[in-house]
Write a structure and sequence with these properties.
Length: 151
């Protein structure tokens, strides 16, 4: 009886694996919930810190044009992130200091820094960092990313 159950389970796992292979890695990812009227994120490109026009939703923050967004991001940083990260230093507090994160172009773990990767890191968390997907709204995460660009 046990062998039958194991063979049925193995068959199910094989079928799921075949389905995931046919449909690509999208099945392994949990879809990001979007606010009403919000466009889905653009697919990642291989270019590092490529300038994007101001009309696109993932455009770099310009502190002069988006000062309200940056100010919101700074407030969120002070409330949620400053307990573990320095904003004015690269020194490690609990997590690594975030000063110059975008100019450095790499996370402390080696990953490439761009808007999508930073937003993903904030949402999902990391080794010792909790994810904030449920705690922050997408527009708050965007504001936080805009602030991190100014450091």
């Amino acid at each position: 009886m046990r062998e039958i159950k194991l063979s049925i389970l193995a068959g199910i796992l094989i079928m799921v694996g075949m389905t995931a292979g046919r449909n690509g890695p999208a099945l392994a990812k949990v879809p990001l919930r979007l606010a009403q009227g919000e466009a889905p994120p653009r697919p990642r490109t291989r270019t590092k810190n490529k300038p994007i026009s101001g009309d696109e939703p993932n455009a770099p923050a310009n502190p002069k044009e988006n000062s309200a967004t940056v100010a919101t991001g700074k407030a969120i940083f002070e409330q949620r992130c400053a307990i573990c990260h320095y904003s004015e230093s690269t020194a490690k507090k609990i997590g690594f200091g975030l000063k110059g994160l975008y100019p450095r172009g790499k996370f402390a773990t080696g990953g490439i820094v761009d808007d999508l990767s930073v937003a993903s890191w904030i949402e999902k968390g990391g080794k010792d960092m909790p994810g904030f997907r449920g705690a922050l709204k997408p527009e708050q995460i965007r504001a936080l990313v805009a602030y991190l660009k100014t450091l």
